[in-house]
Amino acid sequence: MSDIRDQEDAHEFRVEALSLWRITFGPLIWALHFVASYGAAALVCAKASAGAVEALRIGIGVGTLLALALILWLAVRAWRQWDLRRDPEWENDKGTSEDRHQFLGHAAFLLSVISFIGVVYVALPALLIGSCA
Amino acid sequence: MRTSALLMGLSLLSACEGRQSVLNPAGRDAQDVLSLIWVMFGGAVLLWFLLGVIFVYVTKVEPREMPRRWGEALIIGGGVIFPVILLGALLTYSLPMMKPQREADEGLKVHITAEQWWWRVAYELPDGRRVTSANELRLPTGRRTGLVLNAHKVIHAFWVPALGGKVDMIPGRETYLSFLPEEPGVYRGQCAEFCGASHALMAFETVVMTPEDYAEWIEAEASDAAKPASAEAYRGAEVFAREGCGGCHTVRGTQAQGQVGPDLTHVGSRKSLGAGILEMTEDDLSRFIAHTEDIKPEVAMPGYDHLTPEDLRALAAYLKGLT
């Protein structure tokens, strides 16, 4: 193996390493939103007065919108990286660097979709029940 | 063979009409639970049918390979979009139902503590009085009553299917449930979490009454025990004192002030004996007192089989007279 080839590989690896991280961001936001919502609800319901419940609901609402916006942004980026419209191939299984790049976009997009749904479902009790009961 | 299977099926169905059935609701909360059951059941049948139709279509009617676009549409539509909308709709429909089941009471609270294997019951009236009872729950119609649930030693679960949902009773951790009964009647409750040898024998009757009847009943329940009305009952009261029953049981208005076992002040007026397992008759009373452990395995109360039949009869007459 030549040095040049090694350097190219190293460069490519750095680029893909970032998008490898990026596919975890959607589920990560979902997880943070989940922990924050349930943690805050548990604390407020156990310790705070009834008046704080409204503030909690607003807080969860704002947090939810923020999380959804972030996930949406990640989804759009992942969609572009997947590049399905220009290259209408689902599998990306040839093992080339382009295929790896698109596969990571594909995975990140699907994870963003499920994270989006997860965040919406986590927020529904705060919207529909609206009390600590 | 077929006839017996049919008969068995019929007998199973008839169990659904009983006084311990979610299919026979007598209160607002149980009605909500039943609606939820039907919606879920209907939805499940519909989905099952739909899946069957698709299955027959792709295996028998049109077994050729599907165009790629159709396949993709089926996977994304049927595998992602449809379930997300369906689950979202179910959540939106069912989540608001949880709220009333924990709503605050409208004046009356009942504290229920699960013991092995009976129920300690205390009514907290709007004027602050507490009326102690056991092994039976009485509720008024048209008013939400709070149930404050606790347990002693092990986990139990409180469940009156005709009136509402099921809630765990956990030692050291109070739980809460509220009922809005609508139909007067007698409904059966049952401990719904395995709690030891006599778990299956830990039941109770729930009597739902009109507000007028209820007001009358609670005053009677709050009063002290009736004095023995016959010579035999009087003799029974003597046996009760002599055998030390008052060490564990309370009969308000007498020397008996024990807190270990069920309060017996108005035991004779209850619909059942031994926490929902025997009838409130003199025969069953003397059987239960003489052979407690045979009827209710591992129960704390020893059997008093050393008493003479006359003593047992007198004791039964005394207890039956405590209305």
UniProtKB/TrEMBL annotation, chain A:
* Membrane-spanning residues: 28-46, 58-76, 103-129
* Organism superkingdom: Bacteria
Q: Which UniProt keywords apply?
A: Membrane, Transmembrane, Transmembrane helix
Listed name of the protein: Uncharacterized protein
The species this protein belongs to is: Sulfitobacter delicatus
Automatic annotation (TrEMBL), chain B:
Which reactions does this protein catalyse?
Answer: 4 Fe(II)-[cytochrome c] + O2 + 8 H(+)(in) = 4 Fe(III)-[cytochrome c] + 2 H2O + 4 H(+)(out)
Q: Write out the transmembrane intervals.
A: 34-58, 70-93
Q: Which residues form the Cytochrome oxidase subunit II copper A binding domain?
A: 105-220
Per UniProt, the keywords (alphabetical) are: Copper, Electron transport, Heme, Iron, Membrane, Metal-binding, Transmembrane, Transmembrane helix, Transport
Q: Where is the signal peptide?
A: none
* GO MF, any single term: copper ion binding
Q: What is this protein called?
A: Cytochrome c oxidase subunit 2
Give the species this sequence originates from. Answer: Sulfitobacter delicatus
